[in-house]
Amino acid sequence: MALNSIAVEFERFWAMITKGMKQVAENQKDEMRKAFFAGAWMMQRATEEIGEPHISEAQGMQWLTDRANECKAFSSALLREYSERN
User: Fold this and answer.
1) N or C: which end of the chain has fewer CB within 10 A?
2) Are 4 and 35 in contact (CB under 8 A)?
């Protein structure tokens, strides 16, 4: 992944999950965009906080590792669901 904007990554994600779908509800993309950006905002806020004195380097690294694992698990489940549907 290049260092793309959140908007670019959302469009890539949207294209991947809607590929082959016949119809998508009109407001579904807008609602998903809001959720996508909310998640990105949470990650931004957390990475700012990790740099603060009250968070140790070990705590920050553990938090990032846990989030990476959480994202990998979600991605695996999403791809499994997608492959079962198609």
Assistant:
1) N
2) no
Confidence of residue 1 (pLDDT cuts 50, 70, 90): low
Alpha-carbon distance of 47 to 44, in angstroms, equals 5
In the chain, domain spans: 59-86
* Per-residue pLDDT at 59 exceeds 70: yes
> Which of 35, 54, 37 lies closest to 63 in space, CA to CA?
54
d(CA 78, CA 64): 21
Say how far apart CA 67 and CA 53 lie, in whole Å.
21
